User: What shape does this take?
Amino acid sequence: MKITNIRFAKLVVPLITPFKTSMRTVENIEDLVVIIETDTGEVGYGSAPSTPVITGDTHESIKAAIELVFWPKLRSMAIENLNDIITIIQSSMVNNTSAKAALEIAIYDLWGKMYKSPLNKLLGGGSEQLRTDITISLDPIDKMVESSLQAIDNGFDVLKIKIGNNISQDIDRVKAIYQAIGDKALLRLDVNQGWTAKQTVYAAKVFESENIQLELIEQPVKADDIAGLKYISDRVNTPIMADESAFSPKQVIELLSNKCVDIINIKLMKTGGLSNAIAIADIAKTYQVDCMIGCMLEGSIAVAAAAHLASAKSAAITKIDLDGPALGKFDPVKGGVLFDKSAIKLNDLPGLGIESIDGLIDLK
Ligand SMILES: C[C@H](N)C(=O)N[C@H](CCC(=O)O)C(=O)O
Ligand SMILES: [Mg+2]
Assistant: This one.
């Protein structure tokens, strides 16, 4: 199966409610879709959102990197030579992880199609049923309490609470949500780099002293504040998870060998796709550290790839934050992963199992 052509399109899905973190507010899921065509007529789908504050990548930079750097090397390569393709994607350019992810996702989709197997089976096999948490956007306290109760009514039992814009209001937010929901849901906090190390220790000790049960605190400090993560982990009992500090396998080895964090959030848009995500899951397993599979605010093409990975790597990936598509008003992707409240179901079609995509806006 030889690569013959590449096309780009845009996919826009309005959100049910704006997505708000300490870093940004977004109204739509907007993906750059990469469609790789082959001489057998099979097409592979990949996608990437624009997350300049996290990856530094925009749709324009992703498309330019693919057109100018990767595509001239990948055109006419055979999907049978998966490892060679991955080496080219990972070594032709530094950074640009979203472009690498979109390409790798489309290539792995084709790899599954070539072997007529769902991707999770080729990666080792695993359950077709997963369960995701849901994100509660950073809002005034009353709104966050209401959104949390609504999420529980909608069948979610793990809530990812976005905080990080004001330490004392953040502590009040968590206390109010915890008081309102009791033991009906597990709370994971995502600070998105909004606190200092000392503020994090203070907040965690407040929660611990008041018996507020938290599953974890995600990325409390700036992405490059690795000493801050270590400072926190040495002083609190609440598990600390790295997100924006953990892009590459090398960074994960540094974080884990120095005991800076307890959990790693793997996202394809940070790792540059599936190959490094698999490496990180395997590294974490050797350190006996759990991983979360996460996503940016993105749609169900890339999330399908993340779900197949989570299915196959369930020994390491024990936590799932793949709610991006569930936050949209509809899913234009037919086949692929099916969302029903907190349930994510993989189908048994080859590759990512995507049958068709409505509403693609072709890009030249
Ligand atoms: C959508 C997912 N639940 C999530 O919260 N991801 C964020 C980053 C999302 C973005 O800004 O696109 C995270 O884990 O930090
Ligand atoms: Mg995060």
Q: What stands out?
A: The CA atoms of residues 132 and 302 lie 15 Å apart. DSSP finds twelve helices and 17 strands in the chain. Residues 21, 24, 51, 135, 160, 190, 192, 243, 294-297, 321, 323-324 surround LOXFGALJ (ligand 1) (CB under 6 Å).
